[in-house]
Amino acid sequence: ALLMCEDLTNITNLWQVNLKPLNNLKADFTPEQVFDYISKQTTIPFNSQPAETFEKIMFFLTAGFSIILIDGVDKALVAPVQGYPASSISSPEAEGSLRGTRESFCDTGRKNMALIRRRIRSKGLVIETMQVGKATKTEITLYYHTDFCNANLVEKVKKRLNEINIPIVTESGFLTPFIDTTKNSLFSAVSYTEKPDILSAKICEGKIGIMADGCPFALIYPFLFTEHFYTSDDYSQRPYFVSFIKMLRYIAFFISVALPGLYITLANFAPHNLPYKLIHFIFQSKNSTPLPLFAEAIVIVIIFEVIKEAGLRLPKAIGH
């Protein structure tokens, strides 16, 4: 018996890989001999391990594989003939760069594996898969390099992933609360990227990459706060220019975080430190609004968040 899910299997591959060799099978064998002959003496590519449980067979079927069952044998052969719809490899949308690769991850986990293997060709690269989610049975992929990554860190991450007990995992963001243990910190120890070159670089720095099948974003753990100020373009510029750009990023971060509070503090408690024209403008603004400066700043921050949400969630035709 040949089993497959119609919408997840490429019929042409199914014929070329499975049906054509099986159609020429004319030997009179016992069931076990048929199993050994098909698995070892035909050109059909199979997984290294046959499926021996119903749960394993269901996992492979819903992943686009085909299953060969032989009457009298209590295990199944698994052949890769996937043909399900998936997005292609495109340019990154959230992480732009002047130089470097224009490839980003796609929604298919196996294609994402190829993007990493093509960049890290040493034998120390390890790619492990596991299933998470009681209902979805989502395939989770771990990437790390044995020459650079701490073995204890890998075991901790595996343990946390194996302890996940939720019904649905549709993308890698579902895994973040289970991996990140910095509960009381404002900053997360987990970051994400949609570029395979960045994930490859982080893996070679001793970090762990985690991806969920169906999601084009990879999680990076552990992640330091200062790494938010580094980009891939920094490695293609002169050192003194990169140092200047990094300094600008830190200044911009400080301004975005501290400027509202600094403005309120100076306007309310130390106006003598401000230029006269600016003081005149501030007090004119205060007299024309019924709210104090602190409440005014809070309202402005909330309005910016509302605008951001509207631009992100609304259809593009009216999002602007």
Q: Can I get a quick summary?
A:
By secondary structure, this protein is α+β, with helices and mostly antiparallel strands.
Helix run count: 11
Structural class: alpha+beta
Radius of gyration from the alpha-carbon trace, in angstroms: 28 Å
- In the predicted model, the low-confidence regions spanning at least 5 consecutive residues are none
Query: How many DSSP E strands?
Result: 8
Helix and strand element order: EHHHEEHEEHHEHEEHHHH
Strand fraction band?
A: 5-15%
Binned, the helix content reads 40-55%
Q: What oligomeric state is this? A: single chain
Strand order within the widest sheet?
4-5-7-8-6
Distance between the termini: 55 Å
Based on Cα principal axes, name the global outline: elongated
Largest sheet: 5 strands, antiparallel
Task: Compute the average pLDDT.
Answer: 83
Explain the overall architecture.
The chain is of the alpha+beta class. It contains 11 helices and 8 strands. It has helices spanning 11-23, 31-41, 54-62, 109-117, 151-162, 176-179, 196-204, 239-269, 276-288, 293-313, 316-319, and strands spanning 2-3, 65-68, 77-80, 125-132, 138-145, 191-193, 208-212, 218-221. The strands form 2 sheets. It has a 5-stranded antiparallel sheet, sandwiched between helices. It has a 3-stranded antiparallel sheet with strand order 1-2-3, with helices on both faces. The longest helix has 31 residues, at 239-269.
